[in-house]
Amino acid sequence: MSHYFENDETIKSKERIIHVKINNTELQFISDNGVFSKKGLDFGTRCLLENIDLNNLKGNILDFGCGYGPIGIYLAKTLNINIDMLDVNLRAIALARKNANLNKVNVNIFESNIYENVTKKYDFIITNPPIRVGKKILYEILFKAKDYLNKNGELWLVINKNQGAKSLIKDLEQKYTVRVVSKSKGFYIICAINN
């Protein structure tokens, strides 16, 4: 079976429009087979976006593993701020570009395997990380984020309790100052600060 973090050109395209309301912001997204949460905004992403303090977001923001674009596009629509978005899945990147146009936002979207094409530092890295890549790559994503965060920059992520949230928090505390911002239906919203 293919995963949304792989480029599998054999997956037949079947685009669909998804209507999403996050807080009071209405958005439309074009989704497709072969991308994460193709049928609609996934609950973890919704929890993340509903619990992040928008008044606190400033500077440069990276949406890591952007998929078809809900995190970065929502933030760009809500705030007038510089947002970069990356993914390894080329279909997801093409959709994110279409969705940026559809929602009339200006964002920078690019392909990158983990951080290989990232060339600057950020004040915030925000992600619903690809848990199915396995612990080794997941930890590389989350711990290498330190190298791409400014001092006191924040890594925001969502993870389900059943996917190892508690052990991940303990591990993150070795390198970051960690705060559990919210818990909802087993999903933990975590802020890890790079001091």
Overall pLDDT score: 91
- Count, helices: 5
What does the overall shape look like?
globular
CATH architectural group: 3-Layer(aba) Sandwich
Q: How are the strands of the biggest sheet laid out side by side? A: 5-4-3-6-7-9-8
Q: How is the biggest beta sheet arranged? A: 7 strands, mixed
Q: Write down the domain tally.
A: 1
Write down the CATH class.
Answer: Alpha Beta
- In percent, how helical is the residue content? 25-40%
Q: Name the CATH homologous superfamily.
A: Vaccinia Virus protein VP39
Q: State the low-pLDDT regions, or none.
A: none
Q: What is the total tally of β strands?
A: 9
Q: How are helices and strands ordered from N to C?
A: EEHEHEHEEHEHEE
Please compute the radius of gyration using only Cα atoms: 15 Å
Characterization of this structure:
With 195 residues, the protein is α/β, with parallel strands linked by helices. The chain has a single domain (16-194), classed as Vaccinia Virus protein VP39 (Rossmann fold, 3-Layer(aba) Sandwich). 25% of the residues lie in helices and 32% in strands. The protein has 5 helices and 9 strands, in the order ββαβαβαββαβαββ. It has helices at 43-51, 70-78, 90-102, 135-144, 165-172; strands spanning 16-22, 25-31, 60-64, 82-87, 108-111, 122-127, 149-160, 177-184, 187-194. The strands form 2 sheets. The protein has a 7-stranded mixed β-sheet, with helices on both faces. It is globular and about 45 Å long. The termini are far apart.
